Fold each of these.
Amino acid sequence: MLDLIKAMLSTLLILKLSHRPFYGLDTLTSANYLLPAVTTGLAALRRSCPQFNITHRWLVDPAIVTCAKQREVIQDLLAKWYYLDRRPRAIPIILLGGGCQEAEYANQLANAWNVLYITTASVDATIRRKSQTPTWVTTSAISLDYGNLFKQLLQRYQWSSLAVIVDPYSININQSRNIAGQIQRRLQADGFKVLARDFASLEDPISRELLAVIRESCRVVIYCGGARSLRNFFISATDNNMTDGEYVYLAVTPFDHPSYGKFHWQEFDNDDEKIRAAYRSLLLLKIYEVSNGSNDVADMLSIWKNLAEMDERIPANLINNLPLPYLSSTHMAFQLVGQVVGDLNSTVFRQPHQIDGTQLARRMINKTFTIGSEAIAIDSLGVRLVGVTLQQFSSTSQKLETILIVSETLNGTLVWQYKAPVSWFGRSSFPPNEPPCGYLGQSEVCIRRAGQGILVEAIGIGGGIVIFTGTLVMALIVKMYGRPINPGLDWWMLEPDIRWSLAHRKSSSLRRTQCMESVSSLL
């Protein structure tokens, strides 16, 4: 029996591609952050697949100090292993953390060699073109199709014109560029009017001019960058009267981590009150971190911290700032491999080299796996389904609170769960895509209305002038007859001396008439 078990043992080779910051390059997806999760993931894989001889190796180049260099050499690293060091009878699996937009370069070779390829942190839009990525699966927590998400979000609120702004100095610039690129390409392809620009700093003349361009073209701004840069952007927007509720600012951040900054108005400086008012115009989008609160991750967190403390290559300041979604998705990748490989039958064990990457990937896609106490779903494109939250500033709590959760389903639809009604500067709806009088207040309708208003005003003024002139003429006429203007109610009555003169003349005429009648009667 023991000999039979030994005969069934096969080799499962795990290749972990990484840009190790111990040599100078540091991102949240680099080895010094993910190493604890790789350690626990390998241990879990070995426990679930005791019938396999599981080995692993890192493919790194000490000369890599930039993301550009990582993209340049990644195929060379893989090719050297495949053609010189690969063991033919092993089942190879390539794992990549990513973070330098190199995932597509690795996929080109994994696809050509028909090797299972799993990304655990970053992902590229190419994965959704399955004819080019038959062996690619991702467990990344930020694998959402941001282009489709924003398309549906903008359509839901009838916004069709927008600006996509990127912070070019963000520590996670490649990630920001990737998200912004997804949004821009999808929206432009679907007929949206998109303005794509960088916002560098308050001192940059081009950045200052950017707000004037936004004012002329849209009222919705999508911001991809860190919290500090957003604060500077809001200072400039407030100074230009662009945070009064007419504009909507949608900021995108993967999850809470010091490297992204703290999205909060209070930094105890002179701009706090200005930023607090500006945050009323903000909607913050980030991944729905339900998994981070689970018992599984809570249990693993202490283990990951202990492993980080014992590894002298990991800086002490990183131990309490581990990127949990990335560690969780890395550990999860090993567990996913364990479930799939563990289900292979004995025939496969005797001929493991006949199992290719496409076959292994097909065992993962369009399925839901139970890992620990969590259900992890991989859709038909090999992408892990995740959710995002939309948060809005609360005047009551003075912080951002979730108003909407959007989650994906295996059939490709998005589920919208509202946690609070829309409340925007005292209104129950967000502002329209374009103000009633246009972006510059010069629409033809409003110009005509303004012209009609001027005409009515002119008529009113003209009528007033006529009435005033008539009154003045009447006053002058009365003045000519020696009568002072009397504002009383009896202005129409004659003066006493005039009344006596008229009465005296009438009495004298009557006496003359009576006298003549008496004389006539005597004759």
Amino acid sequence: MRLAVFVSLAAACISAQAITCVVCPPTIVYAGVTRTLTLAKEDTGNTIQCSYDTPAISGFSPYCYYSNVNGGLILSNTGGSCPNPGPTTAQSGSSCTTAPF
């Protein structure tokens, strides 16, 4: 009986577990202009791609790639406009999902 109660409690604790995941910042300031997030998608390798195309820059798309696990900035073409680490949020479950923007 005690074992059954212990197993039930352990299962309840696991299902309520939260993990920390990176989210794309809603805006960045690049070239003196506030740019708005236009794409947030999870890529292979557990990374998040954040693109900031509003207002548009002809032939150029500012982006930030973050590690989904710890929020560390992996790659950017914005010269320091992307926060490092990126903002994070707690999500329930065992894996991160891209937050809507």
